[in-house]
């Protein structure tokens, strides 16, 4: 089965890229529902799972530490194990696109095409303001949110996977959506993904 | 007119991407001949032009230095001026693809789609060995060559344009050709470029 993973800067349009690409390729699309599936599998509260996956870890993992200081098998590890199992189950069902949740780090690389989506700050702020239906956000509050969320994503990847989030070498393609209308880039991206899997 | 610029790590297949993409899009393709055109325009020896464009600058440009220490209008600057003029003339002739020579930094961004091509070391070494028809290179010599050439490209961009070479934010797309057969990625890339210019 083929899997496309999408990692993205907050506000870069990564989720829209994922949804539209899934439609174009006829792949299943998984995003926030992954949290529910992991929570169910791990037998944990979904708010806790969400905290592990989306917040900056509040402690460092020290492999050199003594067992008395660091639990060998803690709750966060259980989430990671459940997460990997959920991804493997989703893959086994058929071709799919997974947005976020560290999928690009957790899946076997062979059947995976990994995309990183980024954009300049101006574009990201505009996109976030456009989808703020409550009209409570300001340019300043959005900029702060972008910084905080992306910092958490970076910390999450570094802490759990030892991977530099956003470093192009860790992805098959990195696309800049600055000033772009997302739907216009989908036919090309879909064709690129098809070419990649034909290459394998 | 639309211009596609291709910057690339040595051995990443960037030149092949450029040639095949030009064929797929029906664009003109410019690569090493640019050196001749610049030399002719600047009235300089093409070996000198080549040295300026492809070697690590042997001196730093200090804008704060006194005029007595640094010539106001030196030969390297003349090359840069000629280079920009050559690019603009090529653009005015019609849609084209320009490989290397700092084109992504020198051209007006509005009509330019910029690509960065990269790959893992294993792939780059294999590609270089495969095209070494003299059979005089070794894995070790190739690795040294890759390092040297890419270091020069990085220095050239930093010194003349103040731009970090290879940083994804400086390009519209960055593509990883590790283990890939270049021709398989061209239809997708061509479709992506078309989508980009329709977006503008």
Textual characterization of the structure:
The structure is a homodimer of 200-residue chains. Chain A has 8 helices and 5 strands; from the N terminus they run βαβαααβαβααβα. With 200 residues, the first copy, chain A, is of the alpha/beta class. Chain A has one domain: Rossmann fold. A 5-stranded parallel β-sheet of chain A has the order 2-3-1-4-5, with helices on both faces. Chain A binds chain B through residues 116, 118, 120, 166, 168-169, 171-176, 179-181, 184-196, 198-199, and chain B through 116, 118, 120, 166, 168-169, 171-176, 179-181, 184-196, 198-199. Strand 5 of chain A pairs antiparallel with strand 5 of chain B, so a sheet runs across the interface.
Keywords, separated by commas or semicolons:
homodimer; 200 residues; alpha/beta; Rossmann fold; five-stranded parallel β-sheet; 8 helices; 5 strands; globular
Quaternary assembly: homodimer
CATH architecture assignment name of chain A = 3-Layer(aba) Sandwich
Radius of gyration of chain A: 17 Å
Structural class of chain A: alpha/beta
Distance between the termini of chain A: 12 Å
Q: Beta-sheet strand percentage of chain A?
A: 5-15%
Strand order of the largest sheet of chain A: 2-3-1-4-5
Which spans of chain A of ≥5 residues are poorly predicted at pLDDT below 50?
Answer: 58-73
Tally of helical runs of chain A: 8
**Biggest β-sheet of chain A, characterized?**
5 strands, parallel
The percent range for helix content of chain A is 40-55%
Number of domains of chain A: 1
Biggest protein-protein contact in the assembly = A-B, 30 and 30 residues
CATH class of chain A: Alpha Beta
Number of strands of chain A: 5
From the 3D structure, determine the CATH topology of chain A: Rossmann fold
CATH H-level superfamily of chain A = P-loop containing nucleotide triphosphate hydrolases
| Overall geometry of chain A | globular
